[in-house]
Specification:
Elements: H1 10-13, H2 23-49, H3 51-55, H4 59-82, H5 93-114
């Protein structure tokens, strides 16, 4: 049986394995850590998705909660687009009009959806130059 000398990470130095670790053991340590991290993230996601069912939230309360969060995200995203007008960036009039038209089309889609006249929307693509 042969062992390879590998330089351990900080986490590995804190384990009982020490500096002489078989590569397969090292790989399984990282795999287990990644698996635990993924499981933790997935459980947090599932908790978010079950909030309405566990607290018996009414459809009006759910709409209010979701609409508030999504609207705040949209307003922030638009604010970030506005920051592109700074001196650190350079855009053409064509690009600026394309952005404004895409934002207006999205806003029109939301209006039409609330009025019961929903229509399909396309993804935005910035024209070159």
């Amino acid at each position: 049986m042969t062992f390879k000398l590998i330089i351990p990470t900080k986490e590995e130095r804190n384990t009982a394995f020490g500096a002489f670790i078989r590569p397969s053991v090292t790989e399984s340590i990282h795999t287990n850590q990644e698996r635990e991290t993924t499981m933790s993230k997935n459980s947090k996601k599932s908790q978010k998705h079950t909030r309405a069912s566990t607290t018996e939230e009414t459809p009006g309360e759910a709409f209010s909660r979701l609409a508030t969060g999504r609207t705040n995200k949209a307003v922030k995203a638009i604010s970030l687009i506005a920051q592109l007008t700074g001196t650190a960036y350079k855009s053409t009039g064509v690009q600026q009009r394309a952005i404004l038209e895409a934002l207006q089309a999205s806003l029109d889609l939301v209006k039409d959806t609330f009025e019961g006249k929903a229509k399909a929307g396309d993804k935005f693509r910035l024209p070159s130059g």
